[in-house]
Amino acid sequence: MEFGLSQEQTLLQDSVNRFLNEQVPLDEVRKVATADKNDKAVWQGLAELGIPALIIPEDKGGVGLGAVEAAIISELLGYHVTPSPFISSAIMAPIALAGKRDDLIANIAAGTCRIGIAFGEAIAAKDKAGVSASGNKLSGLSLFALDIDADYYLVATNDQQLYLVAADAVERKNMATIDLTRTTCELVFDNTAAELISNDTEDFNRALDIGRIMLAADTLGAGQNMIDQAVSYAKEREQFDRPIASFQAVKHMCAEMTAGLEPCRSMVWYAAHAYDHLPEETRLTTCHTKAHISEVGKFVAKTSTEVHGGMGFTDLVGLHYWFKRIGFNRQLLGSPELLRQQAAKLQGLAA
Predict the structure, then answer these.
(1) pTM exceeding the 0.90 threshold for the entire prediction
(2) What count of other Cβ atoms lies within 10 Å of the Cβ of residue 337?
(3) For labelling alongside 164, which of 59, 152, 229, 243 has CA 20 to 30 A away?
């Protein structure tokens, strides 16, 4: 049995990595983070590579690949701290809309339609926030909805029903987070017209599970980049007339980061494989994977910054973009504490 990427998966990885190296350098990320540009040009470039169509079936205009391939791409996007609506529009939305709005799915595959995700209040209650439905009307408030530039939003009510809302029908307010490479917004509903997509909580959970896997993969990529930067910096930075990489303490820091992060790649790949082929394992595996990688990512972000010393806090190095990406991923779609609690319930260890 081969535990690794196939030739086709490696070719996909190489082509996307080449595009990101050429088209999304750190200077481009800075422009998006400082609001000098938006992410539309990056997304259009990814659309030309077929990324929005990645997991959409071929008969719906997509590429027809699976969660493992999507995780490979998500890891690369995290490695390059890429500004894009990949997780919301290319991953969660097609899963939730499958068999319900094939017209929108075809537009997503073509890269001409972006779908934002507003699941926060259905995952965990928030003070003064929540969405309720009455017929085909929504009322309430949803916080930290993904993608302020979306054309539509998939909104989960408090009881995990899924509704589709046109962006121009809802009031949007920008919500700044520590991660300036991705946009979030506050959605205000006041008897807002909406289309019921599903009242089956399993549809909500299936979209949520794959979103969590992609966030784990994104953190994996961001963490790997921070390790690579720390090692490279340690080889170049000299103290007492020799590179700091020769100091045992620095060697240990880099080794601990690598030892902690490397097994996470197998966790992500297995979670993605389970999503496609082992549905009975998906929910538990997903909870464990995102919770664990969130903790490892936090350690890697902290330690990599320490290896850089004072330079690690400067925008010249730009390490903070990956640091903040990992921090945002940690909380998005469920914190490690919430995920461990859900895993305990799934295993009958908690009420």
Answers:
(1) yes
(2) 10
(3) 59
